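Pilot study result, target chain (316 residues):
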Amino acid sequence: MFQKFLSITAVVAAGCIASTASGQSAVGNPGFEVDALYDQPAPPLGNWTGFFGGPPSSTLTAIRDTTAPRTGASALKLAISGDGNAFCGVQQPISGIQPGVTYRMQMWARAGGPINNGVEFRIEWKNAGGGFTAGQFDLNQAIQNSLTNTYQQYTIEAVAPAGTTQATLVFAAQTFTFNPLTPVFDTTAFIDDVTFAAVALPTQAACCLPDGSCVVALVGACPSGSTQQATGTTCSPNNCPAPSIGACCNNATGGCLVVDQSVCVTLGANYRGNGTTCSVGQCPVTPVCRADFNGQNGVDVQDIFEFLNAWFAGCP
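Predicted structure:
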């Protein structure tokens, strides 16, 4: 078994990774303290990605701005003017969503100038292939009529539909909304301090995954390989134990891999401790058996001869 240690461990470790779910990703850049991304073929996790559309006569803005943050140094500025049938905004995907779980999206918004058109935010539910599991605009909340020059908090609370694995958070301004009697296309708003998390409910519970990440699922429906916590718990904060991962040594060959402690123990190898790495000298080669004096993975007469040679040389 020791001779095949590296290949066996690699297969076991890869199998563990492939068979476990991923924890819910956090809202990246929630206060818009760094620039959003633009011209992305697919919005990545961890930051906002801008989107724009409309006639060339429109002026569209969706940027980090330092004029009127609620907290920190920046906020998102959404501004649109010039013509109708235009839109701009930002979006961010959140992974690790569990069907049937109730989630809450919250943010703060205020007017940044005239409000003559639409300002809105929403959650879009999607499956693993990126398709919608509910109507794209089912949870769209128009807030332009309630915006003032003071920040107010807005909330969406909804249940993830069957088949959902991710949520996309969206903020937008658009000029499809206007007064037909006196059409004016000029709107500016600020958005700040975004949160998105599962709601603490007795029908839901946090589930701890082997990699230390966390998702909330319906009670009794935690992902395979995870451990359900007390009912009503959430992943905010994440109280799941950190994984026991470190250097695993084959002391017969000096081979080393960084794996979960349980994998290392199963293989009968030497686990060097949580957080250790395969640095030089981490896995010294030592005889598996004291009688195997020459470390050749066997005991024969040659071990006696080499022991006697060492004895007479003064190195027993």
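One observation from the pilot: Confidence is low (pLDDT under 50) at residues 1-20. A full batch analysis is planned for the follow-on phase.
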